[in-house]
Amino acid sequence: MNPIFTRREALKGMAAAGGTLLFHPENTFDQKNLKMLINRKIPATGEAIPVVGLGSWQQFDVANDAAEIPSLKGVLTKMHEMGGKMIDASPMYGRAEQVIGDLTEALKLNDQFFFATKVWTSGRQEGIDQMNASLRKMKRTKIDLMQVHNLLDWQIHLKTLKSWKESGKVKYIGITHYTDSAHSKLEEIVKSKAVDFVQFNYSIRSRNAEKSLLNAARDNGVAVIINEPFDQGALFRAVKGKELPGWAADYDIKSWAQYFLKYIISHEAVTCVIPGTSDVKHLEDNLSAGIGKLPDEAGRKKMTSFLESV
């Protein structure tokens, strides 16, 4: 994974150009909207979760005494206030699991979130040891969703996860990857109905998943988590200094982040998208994409065509 191009850089460029900013005064979250976050059902159980969650790669990989800790606490607090649920982590993300566990415990919010993490190692016992360590770090005796990260030794780990699910140690099991080249293998596993969730990359400019993977997940009752929604920041770079089109307001879009996220969650197969951030305002902006109108098929085509023209 490459370093993230932050939306702060895009914001500076837009301000310099006098264009539409990423944040607007009217975009401040109103407490009365707490019940308005769009929810999608997890096909395996019918449990509903909000369509926008939180990724933790890079942002939550910090020391206990890091300067970022107060901001991360603010992100988790605001997420809870807005009704957000899913927080996605992995042993691959350094100290992210530990920081998430410590902060949510300190905030007395640990049991208020939907925790998704991963197993990222080879070997049955190594996987068991790592997953047990993840539960300890995240302060849980059971986890909402355990996924096999980037398909590493996935056949071995899915056998363990099936057993853990039967015993109640995990509620859902899944697989993940972040490249187009893995989509065919993900689709094969999805069609085997061996998992409850599949996580993969998808964005308004990286639409390989639209060929068949998204539909395969929908048709086989597998929930979908989307990673890389901003193409590792490339989307913000593409619109740096550009104004939103006037018709974006028809879909309650008030920022470029919402433009990109609403395109993703407007696909009926998507259960949740997980943009990462350590900034409270960015978190609020991201979650606000899960409020209000979503584009229909004609709107989605208009969105892709406009982006191709800038």
From TrEMBL:
CDD domains: AKR_PA4992-like (cd19095)
Gene3D superfamilies, sorted: NADP-dependent oxidoreductase domain (3.20.20.100)
Descriptive protein name: Aldo/keto reductase
Database matches in PANTHER family: D-THREO-ALDOSE 1-DEHYDROGENASE (PTHR43312), NADP-DEPENDENT OXIDOREDUCTASE DOMAIN-CONTAINING PROTEIN (PTHR43312:SF1)
Domain (NADP-dependent oxidoreductase) ranges: 52-297
Organism ancestry: Bacteria, Pseudomonadati, Bacteroidota, Cytophagia, Cytophagales
InterPro entries: AKR2_Oxidoreductase, NAD(P)_OxRdtase_dom_sf, NADP_OxRdtase_dom
